[in-house]
TrEMBL record:
Cited Gene3D superfamilies: 3.30.590.20
Molecular-function GO term, any one: ligase activity
Protein name in the entry: Glutamate--cysteine ligase
Organism expressing this protein natively: Streptacidiphilus alkalitolerans
Pfam families registered for this protein in UniProt: GCS2
Keyword Glycosyltransferase: no
Domain of life: Bacteria
């Protein structure tokens, strides 16, 4: 949610007042954009990594507060479930040896956190969805302590007016009824931040949207939920269903979900905040006393707290972020599509691919979003989540690729391409160009993008490894489902700590 919220239902502001405050925030944002009040370009990046907690046997450990007390670092904080924590990595300037610097920093921090967690009976696991998590764990008692989590839970359920229903059909089918939003806590993500100028925001956001399909196909790491094998990356469909504020009637009316890919390419960051105001009633209508226009008139910079809080309860896969640092406002694109893990080097490989490709696509003279219909970018996202590296993605391509499949626009040029082929032949060269433009050292560029290349060559990522090991344990050793998932999770934890990239992990 971006910040702590300490409020009970009796403290909630009148919704009409809150709506007026949101409009004032929007007006202030537009005024600051017109007056060029925002920070100058600094090529800053930042990461947040959500982590699972498990015991030595691989079972979920409901110990996040005890773990945080043991770690005793402000870089680590709670997440929605008692089996989650999150680590925030300080911003770094993109360029030079930043990827290797981050690898050393994150690896050192996570190894320290894992040692401290072990002192209270838990271990850190970087995985999209903990494979041993069961439906019996997704209960209200396992919601993290803190007023903000209980309030968010109550408001989502009140808006929906009925229990949550998960109905996910993948390799197998899962149907699960929940009386809370705790199933959402099964999702642990890697969040990639990039500070951008207002003039570049639309291009970077559009580029980030366009690449989420390839991004998910490469980084899928969440094939199991509550004992069922579902999508290669089950987090998106789980997230969409586990925090859906709409009963069936509102879905039928076309009301937009709060977990949202979007519906169009944008021309300005204000397009996204306007959509937030237009389409989504607030889940947390809490007001402060700031008058943003008066603050601006006095020469100050408003916090726009209502805008930020409202934005934090709308779960876009690429979220706009307004923030103020040292009295200077700035904008960020927050990419939220990827799962956590499997290893630190895999995480940095995913980051290298994202930052390189988003730069290259945003710099193109003929942008991909002028050639790829938005609906097909959204379809790519769901296709990649469901099928991972084995999917085919819509992409505008010339030559023999443009002739493949039905043309979407008159004149052709958009067709379905195997994801691995698309990455190897077109997107990896673009990502290299983008990292060069950021000034990343070639040794880091080649090392981390080489990991992405090998995933494609070997057709192996976190999701495919988990599935292969699970089926090997069942078919070869005859283990039942629960034992196979537990055995696979223990092996995952061991290999994760060794630190080699997942495409090198043996199945046996």
């Amino acid at each position: 949610m971006g910040e702590k919220v300490a409020a009970g239902s009796s403290d909630l502001a009148d919704r009409q007042l809150y709506r007026r405050k949101l409009r004032q925030c929007q007006e202030a944002l537009e005024a600051m954009l017109a007056e060029r009040r925002f920070d100058s370009p600094r090529a800053l990046m930042g990461l947040e990594i959500e982590l699972n907690l498990a015991d030595e046997e691989g079972h979920p450990a409901m110990l996040n507060q005890e773990v945080l007390d043991s770690i005793a670092s402000g870089d680590f904080q709670t997440e929605l479930g008692r089996f989650n924590i999150e680590v925030n990595i300080a911003p770094h300037r993109l360029g030079g040896r930043v990827l290797e610097t981050l690898r050393e920093e994150i690896d050192t921090g996570l190894r320290y956190a894992d040692r401290k967690a072990a002192e209270v009976g838990a271990r850190i696991v970087t995985v999209g969805i903990l494979p041993t998590l069961a439906g019996e764990h997704a209960v209200l008692d396992n919601l993290s302590e803190g007023a903000r989590y209980r309030l968010l839970n109550d408001q989502i359920l009140a808006a929906r007016g009925e229990d949550m229903v998960l109905d996910i059909e993948g390799v197998e089918r899962l149907r699960f009824d929940a009386a809370s939003i705790v199933p959402e806590a099964a999702c642990t993500s890697l969040q990639l931040h990039l500070q951008v100028t207002p003039g570049r925001f639309a291009a970077v956001w559009n580029a980030a949207q366009a690449l989420t399909g390839p991004q998910l196909a490469l980084g899928a790491n969440s094939p199991f939920l509550f004992g069922h094998e579902l999508w290669r990356e089950t987090r998106p469909i789980l997230f969409e269903q586990a925090c859906d504020t709409r009963p069936a009637e509102l879905k039928a009316q076309g009301v937009r979900p709060i977990t949202w890919f979007g519906e169009r390419w944008i021309d300005s960051v204000t397009d996204l905040f306007e959509e937030n105001l237009r389409y989504f009633p607030s889940l947390l209508p809490i007001c402060d006393d700031e008058d943003p226009m008066k603050v601006l008139a006095a020469g100050g910079i408003p916090t726009l707290r209502e805008l930020k809080l409202h934005n934090g309860t709308i779960y876009r896969w690429n979220r706009p972020v307004y923030d103020v640092t040292d009295g200077v406002p700035h904008l960020r694109v927050e990419n939220r599509a990827l799962p956590a893990g499997p290893t630190v080097v895999d995480t940095l490989a995913n980051a290298a691919f994202y930052y390189g490709l988003v730069r290259a696509l945003a710099d193109q003279a003929r942008p991909v979003w002028n050639r790829l219909p938005f609906a097909l970018a959204a379809e790519n996202f769901h296709l990649a989540a469901r099928y991972g590296l084995d999917t085919e993605l819509w992409w505008p391509r010339a030559g023999r690729f443009g002739a493949r499949g039905p043309a979407v626009r008159s004149g052709g040029g958009v067709s379905r391409v195997p994801a691995r082929e698309l990455v190897l032949e077109e997107l990896l060269p673009l990502a290299r160009t983008g990292l060069d433009a950021w000034g990343v050292e070639p040794v880091d560029r080649d090392h981390y993008l080489g990991i992405i290349e090998q995933r494609c060559v070997r057709n192996s990522n976190g999701a495919s490894w988990q599935s292969a090991v699970f089926h090997d344990l069942r078919d070869r050793l005859g283990l039942d489902r629960r034992a196979a998932l537990q055995g696979m999770t223990r092996r995952y934890m061991e290999l994760m700590r060794d630190g080699a990239p997942v495409h090198t992990w043996p199945v046996r």
